[in-house]
Predict the structure.
Amino acid sequence: FYTGVRGVDTVLRYVLPVEELPARLREGETFPVVVTQVESPSKFWFNLQQTGYFDRVKDTMDRMDVFYTGVRGDMYRLVNTDQLRPGNVLAARYQTGGFHRALVIRVVDSNVLRLFYVDYGTVDNQKVKHCRFLHKHFVSLPGQAIQARLWGVRPVGGGRRWAKGNKARDKLVELVDTLEGGLVAQIKAGVTRKEVTVKGEDELEEERGLALSLIDVLTGDDGLDVGTQLVMEGMAEWEVWNVEEEDVMEGYEGAVCKVVKYPSRSKFVANCKDPKLKVGDIVNNVLATTDIMDKSPYLQLLTVQEDNLRRLVEVLKGEDDGEDKDREARARCWTRERGLAEISYKREEREKLELILVVDRELGDF
């Protein structure tokens, strides 16, 4: 919908699309990102840090600043808020800075608007006098802020709400504040593997959205996993789920999508409170429904490493065996077997710990 000062040169009721991940990206793929806004580990926004993406945002902002601070800029001022509705698109300064593209969340009063800045994911109030009608030349670029959640973690103690004080959010902001190109995301779910939570008696399904692991590749020899760091510092805990159902759906042009359904915590607790259930039943239920997707990322990594090292030991054992086996070959074999024993011990201890945590939570609710 076009309106405004020069006939049809501005937009107001316009549905601005959101940037999508490149079609080649699937679960397991990695790509550089810039985290632009953090509400919590369960909800943050990012820009693609790839050739032609992040530069387009900067270019659009620069052109908007030149346009709205120039001679013609005042022609696009908002006279009043009577015609504004939630969802309208505008140009607005961010705080006292330059002009950005923004979506109206609500009209606070005749002088203030609550806005969502579509290229960064930021929500803030702005005075009407610092807002302008958006010229149609600035709508070709999709909103660059893509929403995601940090995979594998949840608030300490379970539940969906993060602790007051925003410590987890502030720590996440600190961890992702690295040099340009230093933050890499890996897709865990949300593209061809959709995760949903089944809620209530009506079994309504809530999609959990795009899930990413974030790695600061410039910290340490092997990089720093942001989720692991949050857990290590006590800001989050590993997320453990029981898979209720898995469906495979065929989508557009034969695309296949796997839908993984998890029961809501309240549903699981309700089942545990059945008076006919005993403590042993709860433990058995957890044991019966725990698989690789229920394990924390750390435990999954230990499991994979153990499997790979076991295969390596078996393959190389034959090469080192024989009547002419020398001291050096025996030492290599002993070192590999010792390494396998150590990682197996770590995996078993971690597995026990995570199982105890799950059972303790359910018994606490019981």
